[in-house]
């Protein structure tokens, strides 16, 4: 029987594969032993040696992750290393060993458990989630201690993984990891050629597992009550990493609602050479998406969602940090255009680090352009970083959630004023068309703009008053609705009359069936996730060929 579960969508993508169920780890268990007074020094020696080994292991892990995923993800292991090397850990554990006459395991467990409990008491979700670091350090330390035999002059243990490498089963079938909770070490050690999705019973949107899953491009859903009771090893599971929906043992009729699934193997990327008449740009969420963008031979970056660089780090980035990211991307694109969207925070992309008051209706609230107008320093800092990066190549600045021409003008002016003293390179400015009022003001807006991009994800949400993240109303979220296509036709007509380039960066553009219709409207550029660039190019190539044949046919009819 098919079973539908739902949780928090933490990493985008839809995937179907068999479940690999991980049994929960025994982090809570510890072998406590009473010791004699003369054993105190021996236990202290074991503890110090274990700490040194764990610290070494975490450094290696951090270096590997820095190479494979990026420095933001590697920082997780640096933070854990700092916990392991905290002098207070040894001091407190030593006191416990001496006072209570217990082994190193029991002392380390007590100290780290105490830290963890203190962290969990703090009324701050971000800090509570960081308690996972303490659990991870505790787990590593206990594992290593278990490998350091007594007496201490026995050969040094090498650190084995403290959980079996579950995903490497000798076969290469795609699998979805199903677990009660994941630790960052588990996530990065996954073989991404085999693991195509992650489901966990516990964990928040800012948990490390979430951050890493996103960086690795694996669809993931967390916070699914009863997950482990519902999924048995080897069962097929469908994950919708956009809506948070999880379908265990999906029926044939359900699968038919996801036509892309059967044809789209998320493990493979189809590389198709660029075509002159139709540009296919990449949507990227962070600098970590660049290798895939290159592989896919993107014509440029059509949407860089810069807010995710902040969200994954859970803090504001200063001008130099932002510049460093932007310039690396612009340089890497080697003269191809890079469209950097200024921060689209708020709504479903909650900026916890801004400590804004809770809102009743955040999607209609303080987000995107409005939030930037309320926090001009955010825009000013970002504008300066972008302007500096534009010295390295052509940059387009995209303004999110614009409601009318006045709002776009005000933000563009703020950008200009903040960057007056900067020697910038080629910079173009354009609004997103993702709010219906902006579409109605298209002519006025485009007259102030160099280009524009259509964000169909939000445009559908706001036009039909349908939450884009709620599976209960997913039926009304219809990218084929004729009213939407009337709006798109009007937008393209205006843009083409005014000779202003307009691309589409919403998900609609990655649906191959939509490409011929978009081309018919006059679209000559779209921006999609790097993995889909090849497929979209193929669709565009055949649509253009058919259109050319039709033109020839019509011409010959006129001549005869
Ligand atoms: C959109 O709304 O279509 C869009 C591309 O922006 P985002 O998905 O980041 O809201
Ligand atoms: Mg949007």
Keywords:
alpha/beta; eight-stranded mixed sheet; 560 residues; 22 helices; binds phosphoenolpyruvate; Glucose Oxidase, domain 1; 14% strand; binds magnesium ion; TIM Barrel; Enzyme I, Chain A, domain 2; globular; eight-stranded parallel sheet
What does this structure look like?
The protein has 560 residues and is α/β, with parallel strands linked by helices. The chain folds into 3 domains: 120 residues, Enzyme I, Chain A, domain 2 (Orthogonal Bundle); 84 residues, Glucose Oxidase, domain 1, CATH 3.50.30.10; 277 residues, Alpha-Beta Barrel (TIM Barrel). Helix content is 47%, strand content 14%. It is built from 22 helices and 16 strands. The chain has an 8-stranded mixed sheet. It has an 8-stranded parallel sheet with strand order 15-14-13-12-11-10-9-16. α7 links the parallel β5 and β6. α1 runs antiparallel to α2. The chain starts with a strand and ends with a helix. About 5% of the residues have low confidence. It binds phosphoenolpyruvate (PEP) and magnesium ion.
Mean pLDDT: 84
Annotation field: number of helices: 22
Low-confidence stretches: 151-171, 262-267
CATH topology of the largest domain, by name, is TIM Barrel
Rg value: 26 Å
In terms of DSSP E residues, the strand content is 5-15%
**Numbering strands along the chain, what is their spatial order in the largest sheet?**
1-8-7-3-4-5-6-2
> How would you describe the shape?
globular
Q: Report the sheet with the most strands, covering strand number, pairing sense and barrel closure.
A: 8 strands, mixed
The CATH top-level class label of the largest domain: Alpha Beta
The N- and C-terminal alpha carbons lie at a distance of 63 Å
CATH superfamily placement of the largest domain = Phosphoenolpyruvate-binding domains
Helix amount: 40-55%
Structural class: alpha/beta
**CATH architecture assignment of the largest domain:** Alpha-Beta Barrel
Bound molecules: phosphoenolpyruvate, magnesium ion
Tally of structural domains: 3
Give the quaternary arrangement of the chains. Answer: single chain
Total count of strands: 16
